[in-house]
Write a structure and sequence with these properties.
InterPro entries: Palmitoyltrfase_DHHC, PFA4/ZDH16/20/ERF2-like. It is found in: Endoplasmic reticulum membrane; Golgi apparatus membrane. By secondary structure, this protein is an alpha+beta fold. Helix content is about 45%, strand content about 15%. The protein starts with a strand and ends in a 25-residue tail after the last helix.
Length: about 400
């Protein structure tokens, strides 16, 4: 006969998380789905540094100091480590409300706002929250069904509410929020130093070569291992990449240094949250640059509330074919037999004989519709209720 077996299937929570994110390494790596520009960032950094270490660094280490490639390697490794930490981490995504929580919030909103007449626009869903003796408005997110915490915002690209949302950065392939902002700042800071470093020593390399063999001969020189390539092309390529990177990355670093000193986010600066017409002061600023920098860059890092690698257990029912052991006088029961026939077959298997018809109680309503607690368990005889009568043996 067919037996249904319940088997538990292990499912990680990251597999069921809403939003537009991708996960790798069993939920350990979390990124946005749009990662094309992130790969371009890796290509530019790795390509420029590879050319610098392959050609200019060898010459400068001999002519000037062996510390030049060492310091460049330290900057390169630090920039790559902070980039990967920013790109592969949870920026501070806030979980969406469960159905029960969403229903409770809806009831609370209806009780607060009352019944809105038909045709009128309902009032905005806002809660007032006091921070440092100043009122801050908490807005309701219609996607996540929650009132967002202070400084949180919903990212339209990742489709998640992010705590202390700064901005979505396509260059790192992730949102920048409370849990990875410091690594993002350290990344652009170290990348700025690395770009200035490579740009400066590229010029020093050309200057030293020009003093020895002349500027024109330097432009015509080709490396011995790659005679088809000109050092001019390689050096100019590095200089151009570094030049345009200086304008963008160094300027971005200066802007975020200004924001860190004020304990402000890019989202707040763009919206003018603390510099609008009302001239509302920033309640999160300590009024001291050192304290603001220490809070943003050195404060305790909150743990992720997603629990991406938590286990969700789901039951799967699988049918397996098996055979029942029968006694010498046992016979298979037809599939269309009634409750009384099933009881009669059970008696025949015990003593090998069929009791007379008068001894078998007729089925009644109480037999056909038994409560759940009175149904037969495996290995247990089906005993009729006392009001029907018992079989005489």
């Amino acid at each position: 006969m067919s037996v249904m077996v319940a088997r538990k299937k292990v499912v990680r929570k990251w597999e069921k998380l809403p939003g537009r994110n991708t996960f790798c390494c069993d939920g350990r790596i979390m990124m946005a789905r749009q990662k094309g520009i992130f790969y371009l960032t890796l290509f530019l950094i790795l390509g420029t540094c590879a050319l610098f270490f392959a050609f200019e660094c060898r010459y400068l280490a001999v002519q000037l100091s062996p510390a030049i490639p060492v310091f460049a390697a330290v900057l390169f490794l630090f920039a790559m480590a902070t980039l990967l930490r920013t790109s592969f981490s949870d920026p501070g995504v806030i979980p969406r409300a469960l159905p029960d929580e969403a229903a409770f919030i809806e009831m609370e909103i209806e009780a607060t706002n009352g019944t809105v007449p038909q045709g009128q626009r309902p009032p905005p869903r806002i809660k007032n929250f006091q921070i440092n003796n100043q009122i801050v408005k908490l807005k309701y997110c219609y996607t996540c069904k929650i009132f967002r915490p202070p400084r949180a915002s919903h990212c339209s690209i990742c489709d998640n509410c992010v705590e202390r949302f700064d901005h979505h950065c396509p260059w790192v392939g992730n949102c920048v929020g409370k849990r990875n902002y410091r690594y993002f700042y350290l990344f652009i800071l170290s990348l700025s130093l690395l770009t200035i470093y490579i740009f400066t020593f590229n010029i020093v390399y050309v200057a030293l070569k020009s003093l020895k063999i002349g500027f024109l001969n330097t432009l015509k020189e080709t490396p011995g291992t790659y005679p088809s390539m000109s050092l001019t092309v390689l050096t100019v390529l590095e200089v151009l990449i570094c030049f345009f990177t200086l304008w963008s990355v160094v300027g971005l670093t200066g802007f975020h240094t200004f924001l860190v000193a004020l304990n402000q986010t890019t989202n707040e600066d763009i919206k003018g949250s603390w510099t609008g017409k009302n001239r509302v002061q920033n309640p999160y600023s300590h009024g001291n640059i050192v304290k603001n920098c220490c809070e943003v860059l050195c404060g305790p890092l909150p743990p992720s509330v997603l629990d991406r690698r938590g286990i969700l257990q789901q039951e799967e029912s699988t049918a397996q074919e098996g055979s029942c052991l029968r006694g010498p006088g046992a016979q298979g029961l037809p599939a269309t037999q009634g409750p009384g026939q099933a009881q009669e077959g059970g008696m025949k298997q015990q003593d090998g004989s069929i009791p007379p018809p008068s001894a078998v109680p007729a089925p009644s309503v109480s037999d056909t519709k038994m409560p759940e607690e009175k149904q037969r368990m495996p290995g247990e005889l089906l005993v009729p209720s006392p009001d029907v009568g018992q079989a005489e043996h």
